[in-house]
Amino acid sequence: MTDLVLMQNTHGITLLTLNRTEKLNALDYALIDRLQQRLDVVEKDDDIRAVILTGAGDRAFSAGADIYEFSASVRHGVDHAVREFVRRGQALTSRLEAFPKPVIVAVNGLAYGGGCEITEAAHLAVASDTATFAKPEINIGIPPTFGGTQRLPRLAGRKRALRYLLTGDAFDADTAYALGLVNAVVPNDKLMSTAFELAGRILRHSPLTVSRIITAVTRGLNTTIQEGLEIEKEQFARMATTHDVHEGLDAWMQRRPPVYLGQ
Fold first, then answer.
1. Contacts of 257 (CB under 8 A, 6+ apart)
2. Which long-range contacts (CB under 8 A, 24 or more apart) does 81-87 make?
3. What is the CATH number of the domain that holds 47?
4. Could you confirm whether 84 is annotated as catalytic?
């Protein structure tokens, strides 16, 4: 049986690949659950320090939720649809957003609906110059349900987000960059090398510090500035007595590369 999410580890970086090419990597319930299982493995493995998430094939990162499966859930009633579809999708994007190790999405084609929402939730994203994005849920009479009504306005601003949420129009990779949805647009043949190079630049630093920064940003984003500053102070206090802080300071003063232990 084909694995719905392929996993490959390389020098502390895990590549996770959505693997339903015949369905443009559409997010059915089994694929979402398998991705969560893969994230469980990554989170528990101290040797894995960053995640790159992409799609199999050359056409799509993910075309979004599996509409046939979702429509069956709707026919079972709203409570069933919310439990099986909405909560499952929101749990995935929330976990990606708060994941303690950096998650970089490499958008290799279509990123529609849920695929776009995963990109919004991830910490960083790189897009192929052939990638396209869309918020097409309005075309089937629903709002986005994996966080798209909340994260895109926070990234792009209310009016720019509503343009795509209310029209369902597709937009290209350069527009995604202008909206703040991706960090870079690169030629398709350089997509994966760019994603790995970005991950490698993060791996130079203390994994504890990387995790604390992700936590501070994720938790602080939806609070007041004063609450955010308290979160920032808390994350610093958790780091101040660690080996990595003292090693970083000593290495800087001794003009040598630091050796971080993640403790």
1. 251
2. 84/29, 85/29, 85/145, 86/145, 86/146
3. 3.90.226.10
4. no
CATH number at 221 reads 1.10.12
Do residues 110 and 220 share a domain? no
Q: What is the per-residue pLDDT across 105-136, written as a single tens digit (0 to 9) for each?
A: 999 999 999 999 999 999 999 999 999 999 99
Q: Of the residues 22, 69, 117, 247, which is catalytic?
A: 117
Same structural domain, 115 and 195: yes
- Give strand pairing partners of 17: 6, 54
Name residue 106's beta-bridge partners: 126
pTM: 0.95
Mark whether 127 and 226 lie in a shared domain: no
In this structure, the answer to whether residues 52 and 84 fall within a common structural domain is yes
- Per-residue model confidence as pLDDT tens digits over 239-251: 999 999 998 999 9
- Active-site annotation holder among 43, 69, 97, 137: 137
Containing domain of residue 134, as a range? 5-203
CA–CA separation, 240 vs 87, rounded Å?
A: 37
Residue 84 CA to residue 138 CA, distance in Å, equals 20
